[in-house]
Design goal:
This protein is an all-alpha fold. The chain has one domain. Helix content is about 80%, strand content about 0%. It has helices at about 1-20, 20-40, 50-60, 65-90, 90-95, 100-135, 140-160, 165-190, 210-235, 245-280, 285-310, 325-330, 335-345, 345-355, 360-385, 390-415, 415-430. Helix 2 (about 20-40) packs parallel to helix 7 (about 140-160), helix 4 (about 65-90) runs antiparallel to helix 6 (about 100-135) and helix 15 packs antiparallel against helix 16. The longest helix has about 40 residues, at about 245-280. The chain is globular and about 60 Å long.
Amino acid sequence: MEDGIQAKLLRREEEEEEGDLKGRIWDESRKIWRVALPGVISRLGTSSATETLCGQAFGAGQHHMMGIYLQRSWIVDLITLTGLLPIFIFATQIFKLLGEDAAVANSGGSISLWFIPFVYNFVFSLTIQMFLQAQLKNMVIAWLSIFQFAIHIPLSLLLVYKLNFGVAGAMIALSMSSWFLVIGEFVYIFGGWCPYSWRGFTVAAFKDMFPVVKLSISSGVMVCLELWYNAVLVLLAGYMADAEVAISAFSICLNINAWEFMIILGFLGAACVRVSNELGRGSAKAAKFSIKVLLGTSIVIGVFFFVLCLIFRRKLAYLFTNDERVADTVSDLSLLLSFSVLLNSIYPVLSGVAVGAGMQGTVAIVNLCLDEISFQVLVASVMKTGLSNREYGSDGMIGGVVTQTVALIYMAWSTDWDDQVKKASERLNRFYVKTSENPE
């Protein structure tokens, strides 16, 4: 059996070498966009432990293990989220302890309570998306997301404007439309459209939980550190003189950043799937080639948005506001915004490569160390210069992202990918559960 697999891999590598480079790049790009495009439509975040394990299991042909990994992720995520509920419940008190204005703290605490039914959908929606995406069942995710959006808009108009429920109405609409997506995903996997990867609920999901928890914790730390940094920037803006203008300007910049980031998140998912699939198949060479094509594609996208931000500068603010002071501030920050969107086209893809290889722990350590340094620079800059030199505060964040990007580039370049193939094989063998029911 092993000899047959090795022979197939050798033949595949020989075919790749014989093919012209242009054709190989086109073929790899097609595979990447097949995963990335639906991801652009649907992705907000990631449950990357599921992504690593499911992607490698699919590449290795262990399809039945994907359903077990999915169930394990539900167990881990449900327990984790439930443990975090006090943060949502006591958000008002937490904001006040941090010194935020009472009105801001009360509003934030009220919205936080409405977030509780919403965030529970992520336990299922994101993990199922990773489960389906690893199998290249991407279009179902995109179509469900389109239907979700189609429901969300009229529902929001009804609850917010017609029934005058305000913020509460917006949160109710968000929760309802989000759970529609989850229900659609349940119907798809339980309805028999994943016969090889979903064999029903099983007690095997409760076995070997510790390695999954370990990988999940690394994943969570990695993703949270990436997302919290921007949130801290807005939080610190609240301490500045003329905080309303500062928060508005930073929020506009972060929103523009987020638009591009949604596109790159699709490539983060594609990086996870392509790298994990190839490592699961045992082909280090194909994994490395995929990484090169992914980085080339994401850099082109980043340069495009970099140029747009430089050209439109002040005009970007008027997409969100008519306030001249806010527009002036956004114009001042436009150069840093341009470099930010450029870096954000590279850094997430490298994170996706690490997730595909199961190296979340290493990335989490890199993020933790470098974020601590850049965070100190950011706090010192903001507190020292205030609003009059607010761009210096952003310098701290840009410096941190540059350092993290360089660190991840070095990590990807210096990684022994043949060794990663061996680790993927060991991981899959350790978690493997035999099944007597094999429709394949």
